[in-house]
């Protein structure tokens, strides 16, 4: 049962720029849309990448993401439809179904796979990469498997419901809280014409991504598949346009540190990237 909470904003954020994702593929040929991590938006500190995968064509996703390494950051997978099986070399196994979340801290190194557990039907979700500060890039790996019913839901305003994946909305604590970047990750569902004020910590970088319908966010209309980068302020107002809308609003504390990236490794220096490659090849993950 959703709780009800009301909010108000003193300094609403606007949208400083908008962009659309670009077609891409990853893993064993999985087709996806890359929104952050493309030439138009290489990153949005502390966020390194945002992918949306959405297809009801089995050939677009059946190859999945076989064993591959990560070091130096966190991956957040949020499923809307379909089933994906996670497994890693630390012994973790989990099944992601509709509404579930996997929050994995790669830290000093992990090898994992994400494979579909279906041969037909819609596969739809998101993967977000969140950077770790230099002091935490070599922490022990950690895996959090969060079922759909463990993600709190809030009736935030008339016609507005919010799933609080990370951070807080009012007094509601999300399924994941804390960490250096203090992430906020909200999935917002709006009935036609409904509006909601979403508080966000001052100083956090943030974005809104509309994945169903169209919504006015920070005074800017965002169509489906459009990301809006949020400016400064204490929160943002989102309003559904002609029909219902669904969107993600995500924010995090910028690290403002050097970033060196190479495929699945994100470190602070090129020397650390070379070390990551050597450690993986030597089986030290």
TrEMBL record:
Q: Where do the Pirin N-terminal domain residues begin and end?
A: 30-130
Cofactor-binding details, from the entry: Binds 1 Fe cation per subunit.
| Cofactor(s) required for function per UniProt | Fe cation
Any idea what this protein is called? Quercetin 2,3-dioxygenase
Give the residue ranges for region: Disordered. Answer: 1-27
Q: Which GO terms describe its molecular function?
A: dioxygenase activity; metal ion binding
According to the entry, every stretch annotated as the Pirin C-terminal domain falls at: 185-285
Q: Which UniProt keywords apply?
A: Dioxygenase, Iron, Metal-binding, Oxidoreductase
- State if Oxidoreductase is listed as a keyword: yes
Top-level taxon of the source organism: Bacteria
Quote the PANTHER family the UniProt record gives: PIRIN, PIRIN-RELATED
State where Fe cation binds: 68, 70, 112, 114
Which protein family is named in the record? Belongs to the pirin family.
């Amino acid at each position: 049962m959703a709780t009800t909470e009301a909010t108000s904003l003193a300094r609403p954020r606007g949208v400083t720029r908008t962009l659309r994702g670009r077609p891409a593929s990853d893993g064993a040929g999985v087709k996806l849309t890359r929104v952050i991590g493309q030439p138009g938006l290489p990153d949005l500190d502390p966020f390194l990448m945002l992918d949306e995968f959405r297809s009801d064509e089995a050939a677009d996703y059946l190859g999945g993401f076989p064993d591959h390494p990560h070091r130096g950051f966190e991956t957040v997978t949020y499923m809307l439809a379909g089933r994906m099986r996670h497994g890693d070399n630390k012994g973790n196994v989990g099944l992601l179904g509709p509404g579930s979340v996997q929050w994995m801290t790669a830290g000093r190194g992990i090898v994992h796979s994400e494979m579909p557990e279906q041969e037909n039907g819609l596969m739809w979700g998101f993967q977000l990469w969140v950077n770790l500060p230099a002091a935490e890039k070599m922490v022990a790996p950690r895996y959090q498997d969060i079922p759909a019913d463990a993600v709190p839901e809030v009736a935030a305003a008339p016609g507005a419901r919010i799933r609080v994946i990370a951070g807080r909305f009012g007094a509601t604590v999300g399924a994941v809280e804390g960490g250096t970047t203090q992430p906020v990750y909200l999935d917002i569902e709006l009935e036609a014409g409904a509006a909601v004020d979403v508080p966000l910590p001052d100083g956090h970088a943030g974005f809104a991504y509309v994945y169903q319908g169209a919504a006015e966010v920070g005074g800017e209309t965002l169509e489906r598949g459009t990301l809006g980068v949020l400016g400064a302020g204490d929160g943002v107002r989102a309003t559904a346009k002609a029909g219902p809308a669904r969107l993600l609003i995500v924010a995090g504390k910028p690290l403002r540190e050097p970033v060196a990236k190479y495929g699945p490794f994100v470190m602070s220096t090129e020397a650390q990237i070379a070390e990551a490659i050597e450690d993986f090849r030597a089986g030290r993950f």
